[in-house]
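can u do me a favor
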């Protein structure tokens, strides 16, 4: 259990750096598509061997979730890391619980934000503004940051949708189906956008291959460890990765990729965990509405990157 717990903190925090190297010479949509298809296939095969069989309705829901989570959410992140430093990308993604809380508070049966929660929401928005408005960011970096925030918002919409969607009841099969659907949607987008046509295998660097392999293997194994932990320990303990992942990404980006830690990044790194904490403290308990309306295990299933 300790190894699994460390994995969701350290390995997921390191995936931002792996994306940085993978997309250097491999088109971002191909990187994202391959890692999710490989990981989803392995997880699906394991679930299938245990007798889990998905229905057509569950596949349709998984396609929607795959589009929100992986096509838009991870597709935007992988593209943006062509221009945006890994630490900044991780911090922007870390604001996701803030958007989830904001969206949930707008639904009839959603959790309502108290004044403390609203304060956390404001701090989270201010931290995003702090990162996006860095003086040293060029126009490409600016739009990359906007894309990451848009991807995080799409993922938040997916989390709200997953609470009532007709997904497979076994969390790991549901996760495998979403990974597969998202992965194939990403590869389809790579074909349509011309990424596949212009891709040259001979131009791929060893670092990019290592980054892709790391994402496909260790990212998927950590995801399986995450699902395993969800069935055994408190989700509150698991959610602590939200605080550690961006910090690890910032440290690794500075130590290995030579990225600068500016005062704005340092300030955002302090503000975003505070924002998440306040939002969690200021969110009233959600009323469960039975099987189809209850909160599902898949809702917090986002890999760090």
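np, heres the sequence
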């Amino acid at each position: 259990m300790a190894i699994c717990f460390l994995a969701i903190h350290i390995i997921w925090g390191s995936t931002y750096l792996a994306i940085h190297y993978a997309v250097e010479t491999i088109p971002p949509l191909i990187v994202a598509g391959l890692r999710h298809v490989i990981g989803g296939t392995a997880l699906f095969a394991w679930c299938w061997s245990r007798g889990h069989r998905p229905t057509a309705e569950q596949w349709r829901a998984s396609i929607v979730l795959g589009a929100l989570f992986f096509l838009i959410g991870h597709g935007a992140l992988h593209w943006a890391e062509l221009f945006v430093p890994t630490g900044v990308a991780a911090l922007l993604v870390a604001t996701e619980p803030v958007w989830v809380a904001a969206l949930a508070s707008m639904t009839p049966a959603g959790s309502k934000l108290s004044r403390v929660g609203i304060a956390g929401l404001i701090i989270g928005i201010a931290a995003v503004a702090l990162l996006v408005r860095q003086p040293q960011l060029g126009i490409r970096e600016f739009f990359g940051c906007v894309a990451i925030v848009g991807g995080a918002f799409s993922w938040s919409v997916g989390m709200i949708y997953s609470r009532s969607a007709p997904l497979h009841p076994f969390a790991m099969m549901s996760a495998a189906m979403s990974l597969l659907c998202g992965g194939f949607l990403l590869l389809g987008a790579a074909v349509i956008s011309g990424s596949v046509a212009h891709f040259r295998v001979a131009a791929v660097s060893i670092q990019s291959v290592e980054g892709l392999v790391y994402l496909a293997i260790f990212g998927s194994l950590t995801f399986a460890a995450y699902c395993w932990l969800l069935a055994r320990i408190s989700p509150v303990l698991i959610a602590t990765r939200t605080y550690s992942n961006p910090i690890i990404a910032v440290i690794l980006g500075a130590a290995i990729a030579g990225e600068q830690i500016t005062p704005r990044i340092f300030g955002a790194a302090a503000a975003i965990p505070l924002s998440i904490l306040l939002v969690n403290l200021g969110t009233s308990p959600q009323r469960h509405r039975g099987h189809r309306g209850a909160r599902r295990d898949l809702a917090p299933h986002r890999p760090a990157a």
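The two ends are 22 Å apart (CA to CA). hope that helps!!
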